[in-house]
Specification:
Elements: H1 33-51, H2 53-71, H3 76-80, H4 84-112, H5 115-133, H6 139-153, H7 156-165, H8 170-201, H9 210-230, H10 245-259, H11 274-280, H12 283-298, H13 305-310, H14 316-321, H15 324-344, H16 348-367, H17 371-382, H18 384-398, H19 403-424, H20 437-475
Helix pairs in contact: 1-10, 2-5, 2-8, 2-9, 4-6, 4-19, 5-6, 5-7, 5-9, 7-8, 7-19, 8-9, 8-15, 8-18, 11-19, 12-19, 12-20, 15-17, 15-18, 16-17, 16-18, 16-20
Length: 486
């Protein structure tokens, strides 16, 4: 039975050819095993330090995306003469451009191999577009800027996930994905507080409304960080200039050892669109995308968290302060869960453990209006993000080669998941408050659907692993080769 029947395994050798240990020392070029370990430690430390700017970029990515919501009650709606429907369009139009550009952006990134230039350039452009929102005077101008904001912001998150997958092994990628995604969670925790500081202290400064200053200042900060990122972000292992020769060879070797084949051109066939064809025709990519979409619907509470905390009965200032602790808790859980998932080399049970805990939070919120119980439920809901972070790490593990396909897979899954944000924005009407029982019921359904789809995906990977093992046995290969993480 041929491995070509099994998804990505068409691009992966069943295992490495058997070589007697005494014939060759694989680490001889690095000075032996101990010297390699020391070089690898220094490489990862250098890489982690530079990659950390992705967290800052992600925070600004979300801040620039969500500042319209923060400015809503501070003059944006009145000055632009917006109706409720027009404001909803202002929020949702961003995702149109965001979804459209996911795939071509990642294909271009994989082709150029220069994320240190491409991602900061896109960041600088979206910072300028965000700042330009502050000079709009009507609905049409605001809609145009929001559309192009999503159009350019689309480059960052799938591009960042793909960049991480080019450097880190399966035992490392979950924790790094968690660090990146914490930028999203932190922006939920503190974005509103930052906006409130600007909106409360900048009104009529130099004759401009406070909401306009919000766009000016946050846009300018984004452009500044983008310029810094050009000199900090790495490219791909083969194209990064600040690596020594030994570090570059080790970086490439690590990825080859992790999947049994190199991560550059070794598995590429066909033209520029071959990776697109492989991804679009792979049913598991769409299945995985629908599973992520389902859990994103259940996470739609994040945009309405201040509203949900307000149902606890405190004044607006206290309600706003109560938003931060659940998301700080979610950050801690995400770090611990992803670290343990990497250590155990297991994904599925780590994912559904978080999601089932979230379902318990939804049920608790439905069951009572008790203040303490409902606040506890917010903590349980917020940690659902931890399962999503492990799910994103599972994505990179499950579509490893060729890299052109992986780039498109990441874009399809992340882009498709944004439809969950669009749908989720309509399941929290004020008429369903203050209990929001129907909203929580939809969240339970979304989480349940995602759990079932993740289980089916796991069963598919089990069948692929059995096929890989069977082919090794037929060829008489004793050394265990590549296996998908379950």
């Amino acid at each position: 039975m041929s491995i070509s029947q099994y998804s990505d395994s068409a691009s992966l050798p069943a295992s490495k050819e058997h070589v007697d240990p005494e014939d060759i020392d694989p680490d001889a070029e690095f000075g032996g095993l101990e010297a390699r370990k020391e070089l690898e430690r220094k490489l990862l430390w250098k890489l982690d330090l530079r990659m950390s700017i992705l967290v800052v970029i992600y925070i600004l990515n979300y801040v620039d995306r969500n500042n319209a919501g923060a400015a809503r009650s501070r003059g944006l709606v009145a000055d632009l003469h917006l109706t409720d429907q027009q404001f909803a369009t202002l929020l949702s139009i961003l995702y149109v451009g965001y979804i459209i550009m996911q795939i071509p952006s990642n294909m271009f990134l994989n082709l150029t191999g220069k994320p240190s230039l491409y991602l900061p350039a896109c960041m600088a452009v979206w910072g300028m577009i965000s700042a330009l929102t502050g000079i709009t005077t009507n609905f049409t101008g605001a809609v145009i800027t929001r559309f192009f904001l999503g159009f350019v912001e689309a480059a960052f998150f799938p591009g960042a996930l793909f960049l991480i997958s080019k450097w880190y092994k399966r035992t490392e990628i979950g924790f790094r994905t968690a660090i990146l995604y914490c930028g999203n969670i932190i922006s939920n925790a503190f974005g509103a507080l930052i906006a409130s500081g600007i909106l409360g202290g900048m009104n009529n400064v130099l004759g401009h409304a406070a909401w306009r200053w919000l766009f000016y200042l946050e846009g300018a900060l984004t452009v500044f960080v983008a310029i810094c990122a050009i000199f900090i972000l790495p490219d791909f292992p083969a194209t990064t200039k600040w690596l020594s020769d030994d570090e570059r060879r080790l970086a490439l070797r690590r990825m080859e050892e992790d999947a049994g084949v190199g991560d550059q051109k070794e598995t590429e066939e066909g033209g520029l669109t071959h990776g697109l064809y492989l991804a679009v025709t792979d049913w598991t990519v769409w299945w995985f995308a629908m599973a992520v979409n389902a859990i994103v619907v259940s996470l739609s509470f994040n945009a309405y968290f201040p509203t949900l905390s307000a149902t606890l009965g405190y004044n607006p200032t206290v309600s706003l302060l109560l938003v931060a602790p659940p998301f700080i808790f979610a950050v801690i859980v995400a770090f611990c869960l992803c670290r343990h998932s990497d250590y155990k080399q297991e994904r599925f049970y780590h994912i559904i453990g978080s999601w089932i805990t979230g379902i318990i939070g939804f049920i608790l919120a439905i069951s009572t209006m008790n203040t303490a119980a409902r606040y506890v439920s917010l903590f349980l809901m917020a940690q659902t993000y931890a399962g999503l972070v492990v799910m994103l790490a599972w994505m990179n593990n499950s579509f490893p080669r060729p890299p052109s396909k992986r780039a498109v897979c990441v874009a399809i899954i992340n882009g498709f998941s944004q439809l969950g944000n669009v749908a989720g924005s309509y399941i929290w009407p004020l008429s369903w408050g203050p209990t929001y029982r129907y909203s929580y019921a939809i969240c339970i359904a979304g989480s349940g659907t995602a759990i079932i789809m993740a289980w089916v995906f796991k069963q598919h990977l089990i069948s692929l692993n059995k096929g890989l093992e069977r082919e090794e046995q037929e060829k008489g290969i004793k050394e265990k080769g590549f296996r998908y993480l379950l």
